[in-house]
Amino acid sequence: MPESPESSPSSSSLPSPDLARARVALQRCADTSPKAIHAAVRAAFTALPNIDALLRPGRRVFLKVNLVSNATREEAICTDPEVVRAAVIEVRARGATPVIGDNPAIASEASVLRASGIGAIAAELGVETPDMGPTATLKCARAERFDAFEVSKAILDADVLLNLPKLKTHTLTYMSMAVKNLFGLIPGIRKARWHVRAPHADLMAILLNDLYGGVADHFAARGGGLLHLCDGVNALEGDGPGHGGRPRFLGAILASTDAMALDRVGCEVAGLDPECLVTLPRAWRRPLGKGERANTDRVEIVGATIADFAGVRLVPPTGGGFKLDGIAMWLGNQRWLRDLMIEHPRLTADQACIGCRRCAEICPADAIRFSSAALPVPVFDKRPCIRCYCCAEVCPKGAIEKSPLPWLGRLFT
Ligand code: SF4
Ligand code: SF4
């Protein structure tokens, strides 16, 4: 399929790999105060070329925050409300009109907005939070496999999508930043159905990259754009992206019009291996964006440097990234060998489960049963389980973890 030509940064069309470099604005944030966060966001925005044209008067800018599940600011699961506040102010300063929203997996958007503190910011600043319910079809003309998605119409109707991911580790994809956050365009529990169509990490990488390509092309066709502002102030490490992870101060703000480039730099800032982030190696083969590790001169980092974050290494998810390729990847994707090759979900030893059954509600493979009415804790059936970790993502108690890597998987890694 033909690649779009490199366009001005006011267009979001996916850049050709042969032309100009992608710019990633990287800023250090000394602490979590609103003042420090706003200074870092302002500096990151200012470092991006043509940002004023992108956010010009008359444009409606959808701030796609990360509202995974009910969690406070301190838990570092949702986008930091102070990053959202700074983004709203910067968008308005250039004349555009911001609106805020996301599609949590199970909880209502209103409850997650309230718990995260983002709802209070929206109310204080008078920002609209549109109805996310109505959907429209997003076509992905350059898809490798998944060429259409039903997504929230409120997002597609905007002129500019300002993607506001939280920098987190992730049990399925290794890390969650700009590309992964776009999965939230798909409403609520419908996300779980996509896990059935992409039942292992490699297929999920293709799905996420196809979605990213479709989103970028959609906003380019509207004459608007796609911009990413990643909240790495309080990051999440360990078995994210939900309550299984642990907050860790990183003090990073990243911005770019190229999600792949931003995600690669985000991995390096976090001291983690970009090759383990499943979307990146898949994108390098197509290619999509300029996150290539082997060709770092295609990514220009302005502001702070990776060296400024030296000594930081977030704890990766259990298993440390399933970087199997070739025959090992093929083996890991065979249902009959899966239990010997890759990890599976299990309850944590601390008996934190409260029997709320949210894990079973979201499980797309019907792989969770409850032990008894008297003692309602989940029992995982490994055979139908597709290892999507949606259950861990929505568990409010962090009571679900990955098992250790089985012996055959260890042999290959
Ligand atoms: S494991 Fe978590 S989501 Fe599942 S029932 Fe227990 S507390 Fe609820
Ligand atoms: S048990 Fe958990 S990891 Fe397995 S399919 Fe269900 S939600 Fe996904």
Structure description:
The protein is α/β, with parallel strands linked by helices. It folds into 2 domains: 22-309, 3-Layer(aba) Sandwich (Rossmann fold); 326-412, 2-Layer Sandwich (Alpha-Beta Plaits). It is built from 16 helices and 15 strands. The strands form 4 sheets. Strands 1, 2, 3, 6, 7, 8, 9, 10 and 11 form a 9-stranded mixed β-sheet that branches. Helix 1 packs across helix 3 (81-93) and helix 9 packs across helix 11. The longest helix is centred in the middle third of the chain and has 21 residues, at 201-221. It is globular and about 55 Å long. Residues 345, 363, 365, 367-368, 380, 385-391 line the site of one iron/sulfur cluster (SF4).
Compile the SSE list and pairings.
Layout: E1 22-28, H1 34-46, H2 51-54, E2 60-65, H3 81-93, E3 97-101, H4 109-116, H5 118-125, E4 135-139, E5 148-152, H6 153-156, E6 160-164, E7 166-170, E8 174-176, H7 178-181, H8 190-197, H9 201-221, E9 225-238, E10 245-256, H10 259-269, H11 279-285, E11 299-303, H12 326-332, H13 335-341, E12 345-347, H14 358-362, E13 368-370, E14 378-380, H15 390-394, E15 400-402, H16 407-412
Parallel strand pairs: 1-11, 2-3, 2-6, 6-9, 7-9
Antiparallel strand pairs: 1-10, 4-5, 7-8, 9-10, 12-15, 13-14
Helix pairs in contact: 1-3, 3-5, 9-11
The protein binds iron/sulfur cluster (SF4) (2 copies).
One iron/sulfur cluster (SF4) binds at residues 345, 363, 365, 367-368, 380, 385-391.
